[in-house]
Amino acid sequence: MHRVEHIMGLPISLRIEDAAPGRDAVAAADRAFAWLREADARFSPFLPDSEVSRLDRGEQAAGGPSADLAEILDLCERYRVESGGAFQVRLPGRGLDPCAVVKGWAVQRAAELLRAGGVTTFCLNAGGDVVTAGRPWRVGVRHPERDDRVCVVVEVADGAVATSGRYERGDHIFDGRTGRAATGLLSLTVVASSLTEADAVATAAFAMGGEGVAWAAARAGCEVFAVDAGRGVWRSHGFPVAAD
Fold it and tell me: Given 3-state DSSP classes, what are the helix, strand and coil percentages for the chain, each rounded to the nearest 5?
């Protein structure tokens, strides 16, 4: 089956090729997409009634943030510390915006719901950030300056691919150490075991600029492909480029 919905401001597509005998792949897909809609409603900084928006206004519930939001905020703090402050979810003059963690975290959980529902072979694609399972999948990474080309094709089985870049939304990633837009890279792709890790590391490394490439590649379980502002290409030794 193939299904696409527009959630979190982007197209999220799911392709299912196989499920365990006796398991309902359609029901599993329903649960995964319902969770993604819930995550958007709860954690989007663009919705005034979301948990994130209420927390940002100081309208915290008596018991504090929900367990899910507490987990998100803990991840945000982890990547802030590990990136030396380049990764920030509360920049000066801006509200709380944990989207750089929320998307990968929420899509990874949707993938786990699919697996729990008996889906064994699938590809879940959230605007180019991808979780795969069951077999090797080929994932194209868009060329940072040509929307009709890819710059590399990755082959990933039971893993995740995330790309941060300037080509879709312009200079929207900021270096928290300076408060200025990160312009040292054109794009940076991370392959990891989970999209939670791949997405957050890609954003943090992009915010760090050129130094972020080596920082990301040095992380256990992460492989990196990057194009810098001078059009130089850098690829970690184990980056899983698909065979021709």
Answer: 35, 30, 40
Quickly tell me which residue has 């868009």 as its tokens. Answer: 142
Name the pairing type of β-strands 174-175 and 137-142: unpaired
Chain center to CA of 146: 22
pLDDT digits (tens, 9 = 90+) for 156-194: 999 999 999 987 666 789 999 999 999 999 999 999 999
Residues β-bridged to residue 174: 181
Q: What angle do CA 104, 135, 164 make, to 5 degrees?
A: 30
- Over residues 95-104, the mean pLDDT reads 96
Question: Distance between CA 131 and CA 194 in Å, rounded?
Answer: 7
Query: Which DSSP helix (H) or strand (E) runs through 215?
Result: helix 210-217
| pLDDT for res 63 | 77
Domains detected in the chain: 2-235 (3.10.520.10)
Range with the poorest average pLDDT among 92-96, 167-171, 234-238: 167-171
Q: Record the tokens describing residue 63, joined without a space.
A: 């018991």
SS3 78: helix
- In sign, the C-alpha dihedral spanning 98, 239, 81, 71 is positive
Helix ranges, 24-121 (H): 25-43, 51-56, 67-82, 99-116
- Contact call for residues 100 and 87 (beta carbons, < 8 A): yes
- Residues 124, 112: contact at Cβ < 8 Å? no
Is 187:227 a contact under the CB 8 Å cutoff? yes
Higher pLDDT: 167 or 58? It is 58
Question: Residue 25: how many CB atoms within 10 A of its CB?
Answer: 21
How distant, in Å, are the alpha carbons of 12, 29, 33, 35, 173 from that of 5? 5, 11, 8, 12, 25
